[in-house]
Predict the 3D structure of the following.
Amino acid sequence: MPNKIRFVPAGSDKVWFKNLQKAREEKGYTQVKLAMEAEVSQQSITYYESGTRVPSLDVAQRLAKVLGCSIDYLIGNDNSMIENYYRLSDKDKDAIQMVIDGLSNKN
């Protein structure tokens, strides 16, 4: 079994834990919902948000993807979410989805 690469946010660990929780709450997810979407245990999310444990790089990437942000945002190197998709109106979300679907069909 290959070794897992550990994600270690140097010097910004407190920002990581705060930003993870903030991003989760902004998306309207509970810890359980985030855990299900990122395919980790709810207990792991609790550990990550409390600073008890640090996720592997793979898990950090999945969390960022599910939350619609970058790892840079989570560790405090980027002060804004990459996408503020969740604050858009349903009409705008539908328009974005139509563009994505159209691009997907071209491939």
Notes: The chain has six helices and no strands. The helical segments are 13-27, 31-38, 42-50, 57-67, 71-75, 90-106.
